[in-house]
Design brief:
The chain has 286 residues and is an all-beta fold. It has 1 helix and 21 strands. The strands form 5 sheets. Strands 3, 4, 5, 6 and 7 form a 5-stranded antiparallel sheet that branches. A 4-stranded antiparallel sheet has the order 2-1-21-20, with no helix packed on it. Strands 8-9-10-11 form a 4-stranded antiparallel sheet, with no helix packed on it. A hairpin with a 2-residue loop joins strand 16 and strand 17. The longest helix has 6 residues.
């Protein structure tokens, strides 16, 4: 019997956004892993700064209940606090995309593919009180949706576990709430790779982290350069792969076999790392 289970952790480092595209494995830019809670592992991290504090939001996957919830931790001096729950439902949650509007309202758009919706949640008391705001789209198993411009939303659609199509939706807040419509779609999943984080503006380029999953799910990330036509149509071209051998964590001893999320703010980068370890809770679950 195979006693090892794929597990994830979130890692961070204090350096300028986009350093991952320039710096390799150096002592100056090593990553530091945030410990998981007992019975849960963390992945899909997003980072936001609010009232002079840095927060990481991520999927916390509950091994015994076999579904994810959204958790957060707070940067405290030189490290992050333990994970706490931000949003928990009876259905699976992951990939907590965060953004703030011009009025200072904070929204979260987690993956809710099992309910076939893209739903916006609005913060009532940041970081741990959220209310459902609006369903942007329904009827497909949408996963890992991100805004690629302020009015354009990129989303993957799954069918029977495989990518069915990729959709670009356009719209925004029309005064009565958010409304979007499909303006472009791709049937071939190789045209537009699955999102792996928020847009990064780097060296005059608009770059999107994307997943590399040919060998295994979550096997790596790359960056693609985005271009929009005058008509608002999107094309992408490969820019750079991230070598897993260049990801070195100072407080971690397991071989890293995958990574599928990258996000950043001005002076911090965050990723998730995939590895295999003996997991007694998973064995009991099976």
């Amino acid at each position: 019997m195979h006693f090892k289970q794929i597990t994830w952790n979130v890692a961070y480092r204090q350096c300028p956004a986009g350093t991952i595209l320039q710096q390799k494995k150096t002592a100056q830019y090593t990553w530091r892993v945030i410990p998981n809670l007992i019975g849960k592992w963390a992945a899909d991290p997003f980072v936001i700064e609010h009232q002079d504090k840095i927060f990481i939001f991520a999927e916390l996957f509950d091994v015994m209940h076999w579904r994810g919830e959204i958790g957060y931790c707070i940067f405290q001096g030189n490290t992050f606090s333990s994970w706490k729950t931000a949003l928990k439902l009876q259905s699976h949650l992951s990939f907590p995309y965060l953004f703030q509007d011009n009025s200072g309202n904070i929204y979260m758009m987690p993956e809710t593919g099992s309910t076939k919706t893209i739903t916006l949640w609005k913060s009532q008391h940041f970081p741990d009180s959220w209310e459902k705001y609006i369903d942007i789209a329904t009827g497909e198993k949408f996963v890992d949706s991100i805004f690629v411009e302020h009015d354009k939303l990129l989303s993957y659609c799954l069918k029977r576990g495989e990518v069915n199509k990729v959709m670009l939706l356009s719209g925004g807040n029309n005064g009565n709430g958010f409304a979007f419509k499909v303006v472009q779609h791709w049937e071939d999943k190789e045209d537009i790779r699955r999102p792996a984080g928020k847009i990064l503006y780097f060296d005059g380029k608009q770059l999107r982290p994307a997943q590399i999953g040919k060998v295994r799910y979550g096997g790596g990330i790359c960056f693609v350069k985005q271009n929009f036509s005058r008509e608002g149509l999107l094309t992408e071209e490969h820019f750079q792969d991230i070598d897993l051998n260049d990801i070195h964590c100072e407080n971690f001893s397991y071989p890293i076999v995958g990574c599928h999320t990258y996000n950043s703010i001005a002076n911090m980068e965050i990723i998730d790392i995939q590895y295999e370890r003996f997991n007694l809770l998973d064995l009991a679950k099976r």
